[in-house]
Design goal:
Layout (H helix, E strand, L loop, with lengths): L1 H20 L2 E4 L5 E4 L2 E5 L10 E7 L5 E4 L22 E2 L5 E4 L2 E9 L10 E12 L13 H5 L4 E5 L9 E5 L11 E6 H4 L6 E8 L10 E6 L9 H22 L1
Parallel strand pairs: 1-11
Antiparallel strand pairs: 2-3, 3-12, 4-14, 5-13, 6-13, 7-8, 8-12, 8-14, 9-10, 9-11, 9-13
């Protein structure tokens, strides 16, 4: 009996610990940022999203809650919407995802643009599921025209990163449409560590996301996209030292001329 009570107590402690560790990333104010399970999330100012600037690869839309993952099989998968056709719902390769460096950490960067109603709390939206899956070959079939989440999980793809998996536990990102009203302005950067996804650019990337819990979805579609030509090369330590050395030499030369 003592052993049973001890085991039950340990399980209760584990559950309490996981709940306590849950993270709510609040991006409902301008310029807000936050971390969850290794991902770094940024509320952003309006972005230029014209032709040639971004590559939209997933649009989803439904009232209440909504979910979907990108693929080139069917533009109606789950709550994916056909607005714009397959050009806005398609496969992407890891080599196409831009890399940025923030605080000495390299991240793959995904752009999210939300479209919600205005007034009351209608402009608020919760991103409660975000998963990045990798696959050596493209997904080519779905179980039915709408597809299911199992079409992703059973496709042979490997889950490389999950908003709910890690030391921070079950996490959610809170968004505010009113900060960048209108379609196409961009609302958030989701920065996922390169260390989590690896560097094999030939891998297919499947992004699964779900919105609406607790803040529900309404009005327009949510769109995931990639910024084009955003990768930032990271100089090695030797190059950095060389550049610093040249800078010091230049300062010394100027000082001698001034004297």
């Amino acid at each position: 009996m003592k052993k049973l009570l001890l085991t039950s107590g340990c399980l209760l402690g584990l559950v309490v610990s996981q709940v306590a560790n849950a993270i709510s990333v609040d991006l409902t104010t301008a310029g807000a940022t936050g971390y969850a399970n290794g991902g770094y999330f940024q509320q952003i100012s309006p972005q230029s999203t014209g032709t040639g600037v971004i590559d939209p690869f997933l649009r989803i839309q439904a009232n209440g809650t909504e979910q979907g993952f990108n693929n080139s099989v069917d533009k109606f998968t789950l709550d994916n919407v056909a607005k714009g056709g397959q050009n806005y719902n398609h496969d992407i390769l890891l080599s196409e995802v831009p890399i940025v460096t923030i605080g000495s950490v390299n991240y793959y960067q995904f752009l999210l643009d939300i479209n919600e109603s205005k007034g009351g709390d209608e402009e608020l939206l919760s991103l409660h599921e975000l998963e990045i899956w990798l696959k050596s070959t493209a997904i080519t079939t779905l179980s039915n025209p709408k597809g299911t989440y199992s079409d992703l999980t059973g496709s042979g793809a490997v889950k490389a990163w999950d908003l709910d998996n890690g030391s921070d536990g079950d996490s959610v990102i809170e968004l505010n449409f009113i900060l960048n009203p209108g379609s196409g302005a961009g609302d958030m950067f989701a920065n996922i560590p390169v260390s989590a996804l690896g560097t094999d650019g030939s891998k297919y990337v499947y992004l699964y996301s779900a919105f609406g819990n607790p803040k529900t979805s309404s009005d327009g579609f949510e769109e995931w996209a990639l910024l084009k030509s955003k990768s930032t090369p990271v100089p090695d330590s030797g190059m950095t030292a060389a550049l610093l050395g040249l800078g010091m030499l230049g300062l010394g030369f100027l000082a001698r001329r001034k004297a």
